[in-house]
């Protein structure tokens, strides 16, 4: 790109134009995907510590693209958030997930829950609390069957926080996802409606390798417990991490060592499962 009369805007313009076009294209693709039902959730089990019993599943969004195959959320969730399409997509995931957990509860006879990721902009929508209530009613499930995962960025959205408070009064639990990686202030822990903390895999992956990670993880668990919050560790990739989390008193764990996220057809087999170590 060339420079004209010292005006750099020309260079920026053409690349901006390209980026805008590409964005528009993906946005149209997302719209179409929503209509065609190309979004699906995969499910990753959560195991209780110290028992090793599977107690729930996290629903993780996938886009089954006709040409590109299975597209991971990192490749389209940011744009879906930007365009607001994450709200209808998220609503679909929520209904699917609740429908699944209802079936798993019936078949297994156990009080399993499903955990669903919620973007801040989705939670801020005026009809969010009603949507949750309707989805639970449709599935015939109590609020306890649902855990909503939000990230620390939610603190910037007071409307969303109000909605979470309303939803929480119906028995739905709220977890802070990726805990420790976002806003550095701990002050919001006193004010946010929250039941659980998910310790980010960034800390978990270094367990047993770096003593500082162990110290940080231990402190996070103690802090959470002092605030009567439950702790889930994510990204458990080996037995050593599992054993260390167990000895640190962590309440539940999730990660490739237990199971990768699996398509819905494979999840049922994991319902009655127990991690042995
Ligand atoms: P997240 O909520 O932090 O989800 C955990 C991610 O870590 C998932 O990636 C999961 O597959 C991956 N993971 C699980 N166990 C391990 C492990 O042992 N090691 C490693 N290295 N990774 C592990 P995934 O499925 O690609 O999802 C990426 C992100 O996309 C999620 O991060 C979440 O922020 C977002 N996302 C997923 N589904 C939804 C959704 O339905 N709605 C919204 N708004 N965001 C979603
Ligand atoms: Ca999550
Ligand atoms: Ca996470
Ligand atoms: Ca994440």
What is this structure, in a nutshell?
This is EAL domain-containing protein. By secondary structure, the protein is of the alpha/beta class.
Give an overview of the whole structure:
Residues 23-275 form the EAL domain. It comes from Muricoccus nepalensis. This is EAL domain-containing protein. The protein is an alpha/beta fold. The chain has ten helices and nine strands. The protein has an eight-stranded mixed beta barrel, surrounded by four helices. α3 packs parallel to α5 (128-139) and α5 (128-139) runs parallel beside α6. The longest helix has 28 residues, at 9-36. The termini are far apart. Residues 1-5 have low confidence and may be disordered. Bound molecules: ligand C2E and calcium ion (CA) (3 copies). The site of one calcium ion has 4 residues, from β6. One calcium ion binds at residues 58, 117, 149, 177.
Structural class from helices and strands?
alpha/beta
Bound molecules: ligand C2E, calcium ion
Shape: globular
DSSP strand tally: 9
- Order of strands, main sheet, comes to 1-2-4-5-6-7-8-9
Distance N to C terminus: 60 Å
Query: Which stretches are low in confidence, meaning pLDDT under 50 for 5 or more residues running?
Result: 1-5
Mean pLDDT: 91
Q: Give the biggest beta sheet.
A: 8 strands, mixed, barrel
Protein name: EAL domain-containing protein
Organism: Muricoccus nepalensis
GO molecular function: photoreceptor activity
Domain EAL: 23-275
What secondary-structure arrangement, pairings included, does this model have?
Layout: H1 9-36, E1 39-48, E2 54-65, E3 69-71, H2 77-82, H3 86-108, E4 113-117, H4 120-124, H5 128-139, E5 146-151, H6 158-168, E6 173-179, E7 196-199, H7 201-204, H8 211-226, E8 230-233, H9 239-247, E9 252-253, H10 264-267
Parallel strand pairs: 2-4, 4-5, 5-6, 6-7, 7-8, 8-9
Antiparallel strand pairs: 1-2, 1-9, 2-3
Helix pairs in contact: 3-5, 5-6
The structure holds ligand C2E and calcium ion (3 copies).
């Amino acid at each position: 790109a060339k420079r004209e009369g010292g005006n750099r805007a020309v260079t920026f313009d053409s690349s901006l134009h390209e980026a805008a076009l590409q964005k528009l294209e993906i946005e149209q693709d997302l719209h179409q995907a929503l209509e065609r039902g190309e979004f699906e959730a995969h499910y990753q089990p959560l195991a209780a510590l110290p028992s090793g019993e599977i107690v729930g599943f996290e629903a993780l969004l996938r886009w089954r693209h006709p040409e590109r195959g299975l597209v991971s959320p990192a490749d389209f969730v940011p744009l879906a958030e930007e365009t607001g399409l994450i709200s209808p997509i998220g609503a679909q995931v929520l209904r699917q997930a609740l429908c699944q957990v209802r079936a798993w509860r019936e078949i297994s006879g156990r009080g399993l829950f499903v955990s669903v990721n919620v973007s801040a902009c989705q939670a801020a929508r005026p009809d969010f609390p009603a949507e949750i209530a309707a989805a639970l009613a449709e599935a015939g499930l109590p609020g306890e069957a649902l855990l909503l995962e939000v990230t620390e960025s939610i603190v910037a959205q007071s409307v969303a926080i109000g909605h979470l408070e309303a939803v929480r009064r119906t028995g739905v639990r709220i977890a802070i996802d990726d805990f420790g990686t976002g806003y550095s202030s701990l002050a919001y822990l006193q004010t946010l409606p929250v039941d659980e903390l998910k310790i980010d895999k960034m800390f978990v992956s270094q367990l047993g390798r770096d003593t500082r990670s162990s110290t940080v993880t231990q402190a996070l668990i103690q802090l959470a417990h002092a605030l009567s919050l439950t702790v889930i560790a994510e990204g458990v990739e080996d037995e050593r991490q599992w054993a260390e989390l167990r000895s640190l008193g962590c309440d539940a764990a999730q990660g490739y060592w237990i199971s990768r996220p699996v398509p819905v057809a494979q999840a049922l087999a994991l319902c009655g499962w127990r991690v042995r170590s």
